[in-house]
Every structure is written in C-alpha cells, then in structure tokens.
Design a protein that fits this description.
- The chain is α/β, with parallel strands linked by helices.
- The chain is built from ten helices and nine strands.
- The strands form two sheets. It has a five-stranded mixed beta sheet with strand order 1-2-3-4-5. A four-stranded mixed beta sheet has the order 6-7-8-9, sandwiched between helices.
- The N and C termini lie far apart (49 Å).
Length: 256
C-alpha cells in the first residue's frame, strides 16, 4: 500500500467496538503501510483531505511536513496505534487533532482514545500541559486565562501513588519548569500561572479517568507495582478506583 496518512473521524473513534473492528481490519490487511501517519479530524476526514488538496505539495506530504516541522511528538503511526490498542496493552493513544481552515489545516489540540471507544478532545493549551507528563513541551506556547502568552523553556513532572487504607489511592503530581513571558507589556504572576496549570491538569486528568475511563498516565499499571492485591481487586473496575482517588497537583514554575 502507498498510503502515507490515515485520517480518522471522531465518528469512528467514539463508537464502542468500532475501533476494535478497524484495528482488526488493518491487522489482516496484508501489504498495508503500517508506517503511515494517523491523525484525527475535528469534524469529517473529508475536510482534512479537501484542505490539504489546495496546497502546492501532495496531500500526504503537507500533513507529514506539518507533523515533522511543528508537531514531532504526534508522529503517531498505524503500527503504534495497533500496538497501543492491543487488548493486553491497556494504553491510550493520542493523535494530532486537525480542523480545516481557509485552505489550510489548523491545530485543534489532540484526541485521546482507547480500544473501548472512549475518547476525549483536548484543547491546544491543555494538550501541551499534559505533554509535560512525557517531557515534550520545550518550545511550545501556552496562553493563560488572562490572555498572557508563555513560551515553555522546560517542564517536567513526577507522579507518586499513595495507598490509602487499602481502599483507594492518592495521586501526587509535581510539575516544575520555567516559562518565558511573551507579552512584554503585560503583567504576570507566577502564583496565578501555577494555579492555572494545577487546575487544568487536575480537571483534565479527572475528566479522562472518571468520565471517559481513559488512563492517560497509566495509574492502574503503576498500582500493579505499589499494591498487587489492590490491583487485582480493581481489575475491570478501574473507574471505580479513579472515582474515589485523591488528586494533589503541586506546581513550581518560574517565569522569566
């Protein structure tokens, strides 16, 4: 197969069991290019194809260049999707989310999904903050609620679990880093930006874990190391575990 980019619509991702059928189809498709990129359209795949068609390069080259030049962390291939959605992997997949503009593609954030048809859409700023979980935020730009723009110099994290009374878990996340204010004439406060980061991270993680059942930071796998008995007890009931979990996000970010 000469396929270079596979564009998925959220209509496929959101239907329970359909992604499983799609992955089984491609696993049985002999000769398909498993190294092709996988991206998600905010609306319909046709919108992405149409917007790409007006460019001076081939459609697949346009998307590939965007990923390589601006969004290297999203060079998700079909092979990685098939591996992540394997029944034993228990991993979520995060793909670049595009929306069609006037003759171009625009970054609409990211789409995180799993094999059970659970998915969530992340806006660009929240997506960047969650990327700090993987140490992939250098050079990105985030905007706070007051419209201030910040360039991320570095940002990383540490995640620890506490077992509380053998019944639930405490999730302790420490985020640290350095931002550079891009609005030179604006006022900024490091405490305010830290509170904003804490709120966005905690609310996003809670939404993915509790509302959508998407374990983006692999808490359940971490539990298998911390408390094997508890890990077995909540097998198949992970969302119940997340629903009663205690989250504590500590942010230590400096602004230049």
């Amino acid at each position: 197969s000469n396929t270079k980019t596979l564009v998925l619509g959220t209509g496929i991702i959101q239907q329970k069991g359909v992604m499983q059928q799609v992955t089984e189809y491609f696993k049985d498709f002999n000769g398909f290019n498993y190294r092709c990129y996988v991206v998600v359209s905010a609306k319909s795949p046709e919108d992405i194809v149409t917007a790409s068609a007006v460019q001076k390069v081939y459609r697949y080259e346009y998307i590939s260049e965007m990923l390589n030049n601006n969004y290297k962390e999203y060079d998700v291939t079909l092979a990685s999707v098939l591996g992540g959605l394997d029944g034993n992997a228990r991993k979520s997949i995060k793909c670049m989310l595009f929306e069609a503009g006037e003759g171009e593609l625009k970054n609409a954030g990211a789409c995180v999904f799993n094999e059970n048809g659970r998915y969530t859409i992340l806006d660009p700023d929240t997506d960047i903050l969650l990327d700090c979980m993987e140490g992939r935020t250098k050079g990105k730009v985030i905007s706070s609620e007051d419209g201030q723009l910040y360039s991320v110099k570095y940002m990383d994290n540490n995640v620890n679990l506490d077992i509380i009374n053998n019944e639930t878990i405490g999730v302790h996340i420490t985020v640290q880093g350095e931002l550079e204010a891009m609005n030179q004439d604006g006022a900024y406060n490091s405490e305010d930006i830290c509170e904003w980061i804490k709120y966005r991270l905690e609310s996003s993680l809670r939404s993915m874990l509790i509302d959508e059942g998407i374990d983006y930071i692999q808490l359940y796998n971490r539990l298998s190391v911390e408390d094997r008995v508890m890990w077995i007890r909540y097998n198949g009931k992970e969302r119940e575990l997340y629903r009663h979990a205690y989250f504590d996000v500590n942010c230590k970010v400096k602004i230049k």
